[in-house]
Amino acid sequence: xxxxxxxxxxxxxxxxxxxxxxxxxxxxxxxxxxxxxxxxxxxxxxxxxxxxxxxxxxxxxxxxxxxxxxxxxxxxxxxxxxxxxxxxxxxxxxxxxxxxxxxxxxxxxxxxxxxxxxxxxxxxxxxxxxxxxxxxxxxxxxxxxxxxxxxxxxxxxxxxxxxxxxxxxxxxxxxxxxxxxxxxxxxxxxxxxxxxxxxxxxxxxxxxxxxxxxxxxxxxxxxxxxxxxxxxxxxxxxxxxxxxxxxxxxxxxxxxxxxxxxxxxxxxxxxxxxxxxxxxxxxxxxxxxx
Length: 290
Ligand code: A3P
Description:
This protein has a domain at 7-125 and 163-240: P-loop containing nucleotide triphosphate hydrolases (Rossmann fold). The chain has 13 helices and 6 strands. It has helices spanning 22-29, 48-59, 72-75, 84-92, 109-112, 126-139, 149-157, 166-175, 187-192, 194-204, 211-220, 223-228, 264-278; strands at 7-10, 13-16, 38-42, 98-101, 118-123, 181-186.
């Protein structure tokens, strides 16, 4: 597979060259959003695939069969990926266009702020993001190899992993939320009370859900359903890209898995950085750092 170990650096952010080129990244910053668009924004490993599935279930609630034969990454594609231009024509036929990005706000805000596009920011406890990202580096052959968890831990805290600092990403987007049609939701909301979280999300999206429709969505976005479905669990990705022998894309699917990985010293260090970076935010997140 081409460019498997290439890293693209764009506007100071590293990204895998397997999925991005300077051309695709430039095209994303020039992408013209429409009022009807829905843009899912995540830092990697925050539950992107889960939310891609939920969004397409909500917007296809009357005919769930219509989405069962296509993978999430074609239904809710990343605007910055090389393949985006292939998916765009078929998306134009069905409004709203469901889109995804890992970009920081500063690369998209100029084209988003004068639209009514709905922006869904999905956040996750950064400790769980770190652990999930560590495992993903073992699975994904287009990401750098890290010699140890300690090594990855340091690079993540310093914002030196692909897509940079988790802290900058979330602060960047929360900093422009007043300029956008913006909805914040967390992985922890979805884990603790998926019914309520999906209802709140649907209200933001202007979608009324009948009780039966909500039941179906809960079923088709559950970890048990998604992890067994080859179009959702990334198992069809060729071994040259994902080394399926070392783990699964849908790995644990829980909140709080970091506790099995962080040493007391790492936990204290992480909490200090978290406090320094996030302490000024008035917002309370539903995750626990203890
Ligand atoms: P873990 O590695 O902690 O299991 P992304 O799609 O942004 O790459 O995020 C992947 C993470 O979301 C993985 O976390 C994966 O298991 C989790 N995930 C995906 N679908 C899920 C679901 N239906 N329920 C809970 N977690 C899910």
